[in-house]
Specification:
Length: 465
């Protein structure tokens, strides 16, 4: 009996494939076939070479092939062009840091600045194997950002800067709330998510104490009606619980549960200062958590002493990782999370290599609502994947355990090639869609101009002669 061959555009052949399929199979001397933007077959090379008829073949011997990584929280604008500017000194508190440095730098950016910053962020993410991301909700010029991202080929969900609470006692709170809700509605209408598009807008609230209850509920209603997710910053440090307790009598997660603003389509970032009652509410409502280890430890959140992310995972709370723009790669974030919690809990078996890869792939896809679509190399999934070059000293010679070697020792710079939606966007560490030299040169000029517009001083910790 003759079997009809599987038609494919490309067969990636000879790699060791970490599939992240439900059985977590690893195919030594494997192959992966794609047609259009979908995976049509994955398995052992010998079998696929017999069953697949491909228009082209890519020799991947010496490589490990994995799904693309997910970054659940990154500021793609604001930071990339002014990262080197010293933004606070020890005599300034966290509020001063935000109000006098961070926010002025974000809001001084022009549409072209934000488009450039978004491309710079996409370039860094793709270089380190991130194929999908969720923006942190601090984009101001959404049209320009979407245009810039489209040129990069990355998959992302982006949201405008939305603050729906007044700070001036003389201002009318209803006006600010209505403006924020109108903004949420307009961006979702302008960039709808049909499940296929690479880029779409989701309701992304700045969070903390910046939005009224009405704005929270409007964002959730939009997500409910359109099959989207809502993301917001909550409880990185004690200031959020203190504000909510003073103004609502409840801790942040308790208050959001009380007003009906939690659920499977709500993603809360940081959650470093939470208690077990809040963890139970997250579990009961199916609300997702996004953990940003670099932000927590560089920001001095006290996470090692009071963080509850392992307890969240134990309770079945969907959790993914984010870089918060403070690290170039999600792999480093995974390693930092594991090291910190292992040390804090005196438990060397906590967060093993297998869990780190799950956090970056299938767990990220689950939080994004993309189970079976991204995060695993299975037939029918989107063709988002990475080739990791194992021919480096850090990989350590033979592939005895590619999962452990990748999660714990491989250099992030060993990302060799990346495909997103069936399209190759990186080859030999070089971006195929963006003009890297021009992009980096333009970034230097734009960053200098932004700082000049703000009038903020350029400070260095040591004298520069």
């Amino acid at each position: 009996m003759t079997t009809t061959p599987i038609e494919a555009d490309l067969l990636i052949s000879g790699a060791e494939i970490i599939s992240m399929n439900p059985a977590r199979e690893v195919f030594r001397d494997g192959a992966l076939a794609i047609k259009g933007n979908r995976i049509v077959a994955v398995g052992k090379r010998e079998a696929l070479e017999q069953s697949v008829r491909a228009r082209a073949t890519h020799d991947a011997r010496g490589f490990v092939l994995t799904p693309g990584f997910h970054d659940g929280h990154i500021h793609i604008t604001g930071d990339p062009l002014t990262r080197g500017l010293v933004r606070r000194v020890p005599d300034q508190d966290w509020g001063d840091n935000l109000s006098k440095w961070v926010i002025p730098l974000f809001k001084a950016q022009t549409p072209s600045d934000e488009a450039l910053a978004a491309q710079l962020s996409a370039l860094a993410m793709i270089r380190h194997g991130t194929t999908s991301f969720m923006e942190a909700g601090t984009v101001i010029h959404l049209d320009a950002v979407m245009e810039g991202l489209a040129a990069s080929g990355i998959r992302g969900r982006v949201g405008r800067w939305v603050e729906g609470r007044t700070y001036d006692p003389a201002a009318d709170p209803a006006i600010r709330t209505n403006e924020a809700i109108a903004l949420l509605e307009s961006e979702v209408a302008a960039y709808p998510d049909d499940g296929e598009t690479l880029l779409a807008a989701w309701p992304q609230l700045v969070g903390h104490s910046t939005n009224s209850d009405e704005v929270w509920l409007a964002a959730k209603s939009l997500a409910d009606s359109n099959g989207l997710k809502v993301s917001a910053h909550i409880s990185p440090r004690a200031s959020d619980p203190e504000w909510f307790l003073a103004n609502t009598g409840r801790r942040p997660v308790e208050h959001l549960a009380h007003i009906g603003a939690l659920g499977p389509n709500i993603c809360l970032t940081h959650l470093a200062d939470t208690d077990m009652a809040e963890v139970e509410l997250l579990a009961e409502t199916g609300t997702s958590a996004i953990h940003c280890p670099h932000a927590a430890f560089l920001g001095g959140f006290g996470l090692a002493k009071k963080g509850l992310h392992p307890e969240m995972m134990a309770r079945g709370i969907p959790l993914m990782l984010g870089t918060d723009g403070m690290a170039a790669d999600i792999l480093s974030s995974a390693r930092l999370m594991a090291a910190a919690y292992r040390d804090a809990r005196d438990d060397q078996d906590l967060l093993p290599a297998t869990k780190l890869l799950e956090l970056m792939t299938v767990d990220g896809a689950k939080v994004m609502g993309w189970e079976g679509v991204t995060g695993a190399l299975i037939p029918g999934a989107k063709a988002d994947f990475i080739l990791h070059d194992t021919r480096t000293p850090e990989w350590g010679g033979p592939l005895f355990d590619s999962v452990g070697q990748l999660a714990l020792s491989a250099p992030p710079s060993a990302v060799h090639s990346v495909w997103i939606d069936g399209r190759q966007v990186l080859e030999s560490g070089r971006n195929l869609l963006l003009d890297e030299e021009k992009l980096l040169a333009d970034a230097v000029q734009a960053g200098q101009a932004i700082v000049a517009r703000t009038g903020l001083p350029i400070r260095t910790p040591w004298p520069v002669l």
